[in-house]
Write a structure and sequence with these properties.
Strand content: 5-15%
Radius of gyration: 36 Å
Number of strands: 10
Largest sheet: 6 strands, mixed
Distance between the termini: 64 Å
Shape: elongated
Number of helices: 21
Length: 615
C-alpha cells in the first residue's frame, strides 16, 4: 500500500509563481496601508536604536581610559535605548498582529464564500473534509507565513542599517562581509524547492486527516450499527501515520538548515576576526572600530542566517496561500451567461436536454418536458431513471451538456442565479435541519418572517396538531441535522419552510421511508397548500402524492416513456401500471391482502415441544 497515495493534488489545484502569489497577497495587504506604514516605521526605528548601542561602546573604547562621567552617560543612554526598543517593539508587534488578523479574516471569509458558492458537482468530486482543511488549517499556515514575513522584514531592516555603519568604518572589511553573504543564500536555496514541495504534501496530508475525522464523526452511527469502529480507527490511523511521516520529513529538513548555516557563519566570523585584527594591528582601524566590527558582524550574520532559514518556512506560507487561492479560483461547472432579474410565473420547459455526471454516465437522453404555470407534475420511475437529475438541473445545481431549459420563456443560463434560486422552494429527500429551534429552521428561507406568521403557517398543517408532539412547540430544539425529530417531523418542518417562502416553483424529492398514517395525512395537507399556489415538480414515492399531481411523468433510462393522469395510465396497462402494482397498490385505501398470502406458511408456525407424559 502506498502510504502517500492520498496526497495527490486536487483537480482544481493550480501552480502559482512566487511573484503571482505575492501580488495576490499584496492585494489583501493593500487595504491596510496605514497599519503597514506605522509598523514599518517602528521597525526601522528599532533597527537604528539596536545599532546605536555598539556604536556608542566603540566610541568609548577609543577614549581609554574612560572618564567616570562618560561611563554614566553611556549607562543612561543604554537605558533610554532599551526603553525605546521596548516601546517600539510593542507597537510594531501590535500593529503587525492586527494586520495579520485582518488579512487572514478577509482571506478565510473569501475562501468560505467560494466554498459556499461552488456547485454540488464540486462536492461530488472533492471531499468536504479537504475543503474544510483549506479554509481552516491552510489559512492558519498562511498567517504563520505572514508572521515570518514580519520577522524577515525586521531582519532586513537591521542588516541595512548595519551595512551603512560598517561601510563608514572600513569599506574593505565590509566588502569581505558582503562577498560571503551570497554563500549563505545559496545554501538556503538548496532547501527551498524541496521544502516547499514537502510543505505542500504536508498540507494535503493534514487535509486527509481532517477529511477522515469529518467522515468518521458524521457517519459514526452507521459505523456503530455495523460494528465497524475498528475499521474506522484503522483508516484514521493510516492517514494519521501518513501525516506524521511527511511532517517528520519536513521537520527534519527544516531542522538541518540552522546547523549548516551556523557552521558557515562561524567560518565567516573567523575570517573577519583575523582580517580585522590584522587591520587593527597595522593601525588601519582603531581598537574601538575593531570591536564594533566584531559586534556588528555577529548582528549582521544572525539576521542573514535567520532570513535564509525562515525563507523555507515562508515558502510553507506561500504553499498554504496557493491552496487557498486554488479553492477561491476554482472554475464553476454551472455557468450563467447573464444576470436577468425575473419574477417567476412558473412556466418550465426542458428541450432535448442531455446530461451526464461523467463521460461514461449518461443520465438524461433528449429529455423534453413542458410544465404550465400552476401545474403540478409527478415524476415516477425506477431508481436510476433520471428523476433526481431533472430537479437538480432545474435548481441549477448541475450544468447540462446540451439542449435548453427555459423559465417563463427565458434561458435559465441568462438569469441571475441568486435571485432565481430564491424563488424555488426545494424539499430534498432527506430534509436537512440546522441546529436551533423549529421556528429558526422554518424561518431559514424567509428570515423576515415574524413569529406570528410562522405560528399561523404551522397551524395550517393539520390544525397545528403536529406541534403537540414537540416538547416546546416551535421553540423545540431540533439537534444537529435535526436528529431530535423523526423523519416525518423533519419533512413537516421542511414543508412549512416552503409555505413561509411562498415560492412560484416548488420542487419535492419525496422521502422513500415509510411514515405513520397520521403524519402522512399532515404532510399531504401541507403539500396541497403548496400545490395550490405554485408550479410543482415532484419525485413521488407515495400514492397520495402521485394522485395529487395534475400530470404524471413516467421515466426510464433518462427518457419519458409515458405521461397522463393516474386513471389514464392505469387503464393503458403500461409501465406505470406495473409500478402501481409493485409500489403503490398497497398504499391504496381499498387494498386488501390476497387470500393466497393471508394463510401463514406452515414453516412459520411455531410448534410447542412435545414432552413425555408426567413432565
Amino acid at each position: 500500500m502506498n502510504m502517500f497515495g492520498g496526497l495527490d493534488t486536487e483537480a482544481y489545484d493550480r501552480k502559482y509563481t512566487d511573484r503571482q502569489l505575492l501580488q495576490r497577497i499584496g492585494r489583501f495587504l493593500g487595504v491596510y496601508r496605514v497599519k503597514i506604514t506605522a509598523a514599518f516605521a517602528a521597525l526601522m526605528l528599532m533597527a537604528v536604536a539596536s545599532t546605536a548601542f555598539p556604536l556608542l561602546v566603540a566610541v568609548v573604547l577609543d577614549r581609554l581610559p574612560v572618564p567616570p562621567l562618560l561611563l554614566l552617560q553611556l549607562a543612561a543612554t543604554s537605558l533610554v535605548i532599551g526603553v525605546l526598543m521596548w516601546g517600539l517593539n510593542y507597537w510594531r508587534a501590535r500593529w503587525f498582529s492586527e494586520l495579520i488578523g485582518d488579512v487572514v479574516l478577509a482571506l478565510r471569509t473569501e475562501a468560505f464564500r467560494a466554498a459556499a458558492e461552488h456547485d454540488l458537482s464540486f462536492y461530488d468530486e472533492f471531499r468536504s473534509g479537504r475543503v474544510i482543511s483549506r479554509i481552516t488549517s491552510d489559512t492558519q499556515d498562511f498567517a504563520q507565513g505572514l508572521q515570518l514575513l514580519g520577522d524577515i522584514l525586521d531582519d532586513i531592516a537591521g542588516v541595512l542599517v548595519l551595512l551603512v555603519v560598517l561601510l563608514r568604518l572600513e569599506w574593505r572589511l565590509t566588502l569581505l562581509v558582503v562577498v560571503l553573504t551570497p554563500f549563505v543564500f545559496w545554501m538556503a536555496s538548496a532547501w527551498r524547492n524541496f521544502a516547499r514541495g514537502l510543505t505542500q504534501r504536508a498540507s494535503r496530508a493534514m487535509a486527509n486527516v481532517n477529511a477522515a475525522i469529518q467522515e468518521a464523526v458524521t457517519g459514526i452511527s452507521v459505523a456503530k450499527n455495523f460494528r465497524q469502529e475498528a475499521a474506522v480507527y484503522s483508516q484514521f490511523a493510516a492517514v494519521n501515520r501518513a501525516s506524521y511521516d511527511i511532517n517528520w520529513q519536513r521537520g527534519f529538513l527544516l531542522a538541518t538548515v540552522f546547523p549548516a548555516l551556523n557552521a558557515m557563519v562561524g567560518c565567516g566570523s573567523a575570517l573577519i576576526i583575523y582580517a580585522g585584527g590584522r587591520a587593527a594591528g597595522a593601525g588601519v582601524i582603531t581598537a574601538g572600530a575593531w570591536f564594533l566590527f566584531l559586534a556588528a558582524v555577529e548582528r549582521f550574520w544572525f539576521p542573514v542566517s535567520q532570513l535564509a532559514a525562515f525563507w523555507s518556512q515562508f515558502q510553507g506560507g506561500l504553499a498554504a496561500a496557493e491552496r487557498v487561492f486554488a479553492l477561491i479560483d476554482a472554475e464553476p461547472a454551472v455557468r450563467q451567461t447573464g444576470a436577468r432579474q425575473l419574477k417567476l410565473q412558473g412556466a418550465l420547459e426542458f428541450s432535448d436536454v442531455h446530461f451526464r455526471y461523467s463521460r461514461q454516465e449518461a443520465v438524461l437522453r433528449g429529455f423534453s418536458l413542458r410544465i404550465e404555470p400552476g401545474e403540478s407534475v409527478a415524476l415516477v420511475g425506477h431508481t436510476g431513471a433520471g428523476k433526481s437529475s431533472v430537479i437538480k438541473l432545474l435548481a441549477r445545481f448541475y450544468e447540462f451538456q446540451s439542449g435548453s431549459l427555459h423559465i417563463d420563456g427565458h434561458d435559465v443560463r441568462s438569469l441571475e442565479l441568486r435571485s432565481y434560486r430564491s424563488q424555488l422552494g426545494l424539499v430534498p429527500q432527506l430534509p436537512f435541519l440546522f441546529a436551533g429551534s423549529v421556528a429558526d429552521n422554518i424561518r431559514y428561507a424567509y428570515p423576515q418572517a415574524t413569529d406570528a406568521e410562522i405560528l399561523a403557517i404551522a397551524h395550517q398543517i393539520g390544525a397545528g396538531e403536529w406541534l403537540d408532539a414537540l416538547p416546546n412547540g416551535l421553540d423545540s430544539e431540533v439537534g444537529e441535522r435535526g436528529t431530535r425529530l423523526s423523519l416525518g417531523q423533519r419533512q413537516l418542518v421542511a414543508l412549512a419552510r416552503v409555505l413561509v417562502q411562498h415560492p412560484p416553483v416548488f420542487i419535492l424529492d419525496e422521502a422513500t421511508a415509510s411514515i405513520d398514517p397520521f403524519t402522512e395525512a399532515q404532510i399531504q395537507t401541507a403539500l396541497e397548500l403548496i400545490l395550490e399556489r405554485s408550479t410543482s415538480i415532484m419525485i413521488a414515492h407515495r400514492l397520495s402524492t402521485v394522485r395529487s399531481a395534475n400530470r404524471i411523468i413516467v421515466m426510464a433510462h433518462g427518457e419519458i416513456i409515458e405521461h397522463g393522469s393516474h386513471s389514464q395510465l392505469l387503464s393503458n396497462g403500461g409501465h406505470y401500471a406495473e409500478l402501481y402494482q409493485t409500489y403503490f397498490r398497497h398504499q391504496s385505501a381499498d387494498y386488501t391482502v390476497p387470500e393466497s398470502t393471508q394463510a401463514v406458511p406452515a414453516q412459520w408456525v411455531h410448534k410447542a415441544p412435545q414432552h413425555p407424559a408426567g413432565i
